[in-house]
Amino acid sequence: xxxxxxxxRHQLTFFLNVFNRFTDKSIGYLGGVSEGGLMxxxxxxxxxxxxxxxxxxxxxxxxxxxxxxxxxxEDVTPNHYDSGxxxxxxxxxxxxxxxxxxxxxxxxxxxxxA
Length: 114
Fold this sequence. Notes:
By secondary structure, the chain is mainly beta. The chain has one helix at residues 92-105; strands at 17-20, 26-34, 37-42, 51-58, 61-74, 81-88. The protein has one domain: Beta Barrel (Thrombin, subunit H). It starts with 16 loop residues before the first strand and ends in a 9-residue tail after the last helix.
């Protein structure tokens, strides 16, 4: 029996690129977000316990973040790395991004129309 996917799969790594704010060079892709931090997927390891000025480029706006790397380890995919960052005073735009992502990827209970 073939069952078709009811929810479209989205590859976030194709959309949520993270840049160095000063050089405008990509340093990786957004892997996860929280109110006070983020996870980054990258092709190179990130220096741990260092400060970073990051930029997220969203449709119609950019979000600049000041962050400190807390950890970095090799991903299960060879030559890929996962890194965790704590954010210093995340701006309101970042909180809106988190809210939007939570809403977009949450499963709402199905409500049949009467």
